[in-house]
Amino acid sequence: xxxxxxxxxxxxxxxxxxxxxxxxxxxxxxxxxxxxxxxxxxxxxxxxxxxxxxxxxxxxxxxxxxxxxxxxxxxxxxxxxxxxxxxxxxxxxxxxxxxxxxxxxxxxxxx
Length: 111
Known about the structure:
Blueprint: H1 39-66, H2 75-110
Helix pairs in contact: 1-2
């Protein structure tokens, strides 16, 4: 393969695993040759914490809806906690989808 702009020959970089955008930079020599992304751990953590954050968001939301004006913690704090847990649940769901998609693509490449 040749780079048309510079006229020099470039070798393709081996892609044993898919990267974030599907491309890899050449090895710098400091990373292990067989370094892998911890997709299994990410799958486990996202799978565990997605329902935990969903349940926490619902419970904090219900607690905020049933709290009175003089209650401690206040309605604003509980609403903030519910929104925070909802955002974390959304992040876990997106990460779970990304990990599952990558694992399917890698298994398809391997055969």
